[in-house]
Amino acid sequence: MTAGRLSGRSVFLVEDEVMIRMMVADMLEELGYKVAAEAGDITEAMRLAQSTEFDLAILDVNVNGKVISPVADLIKAKGCPFIFATGYGSSGLPEQYRDRPALQKPFQLDALGKTIEAALRAG
Question: Does the predicted TM-score (pTM) go above 0.90?
Fold first, then answer.
């Protein structure tokens, strides 16, 4: 499965669970995307969001008990599209970002690919 002409784009991945982050990174590569950077905590995510070039971000909503909003705010200011990954459903999204695309964990490769393509086309 490839993401067509959108493949080859780069993704910034924020996920505190190492095994989930590795699995999502593998899924991204299988879809034809490259992982520009990965972060497992808010401080690292803030630094990388400011210093790394990427086409899209996938943000875990709850990173080590902290809400991802400050990172989402930085990425929004850059004008870059992002997707939330959550185990809490849409009600678990930060209120100001409930209009953003979200993947319900656990998600499958097909759902990830379709959500990324839609976000890149819209963004």
Answer: yes
